[in-house]
Amino acid sequence: xxxxxxxxxxxxxxxxGHANRLLVMALLVRYLEERKDSQGHGVFPKAGExxxxxxxxxxxxxxxxxxxxxxxxxxxxxxxxxxxxxxxSKRFNGDVFRLSDEQRTYLGKADLxxxxxxxxxQVGTQSVxxxxxxxxxxxxxxxxxxxxxxxxxxxKKPQTEDSPDAGSTHKKEQGIVYTPPxxxxxxxxxxxxxxGPSKFRV
Length: 202
Fold this sequence. Notes:
The chain contains 9 helices and 4 strands; from the N terminus they run H-H-E-E-H-H-H-H-E-E-H-H-H. It is mainly alpha-helical. 21% of the residues are buried.
């Protein structure tokens, strides 16, 4: 993931800020793409599936690129990734998929072939195991760490782009801070105990 980030930036296809944001959002889309509920239904309709009276010939992503069967092929076919993120922003809470007008314009014109290569497992002249990775079992903690590391990058900091300390001040200023699960459990146990007083301290 870091290598792809460097490649996208050094190739000039994407600048640092947009590359960071795009990779995080792409990772989240792949995560959602493979998630299933207890009935085996995915977040996005599959080929031949009917939802709300509509049958998807190739699947959900055909709405954004004719003939696209998944997110990877949608990006490869130069689909409308801006419309996809706008759709997801309306469907899911939070701002992770929300784009500013500047980001919308930039991504609408950007060359995303490098992202397509990454999602398809073709990095440079070598193939990687990325397409075989089960995003359905991707720990949410990993996504949180990637979110914090990538979106917290500070252009003004002198450290290298891969430095774990780069952008720490910027992260705090922007509220981009990952709270480890053990700390969440501790805070919940202290403020909302399963036993004891019924008046929670929230």
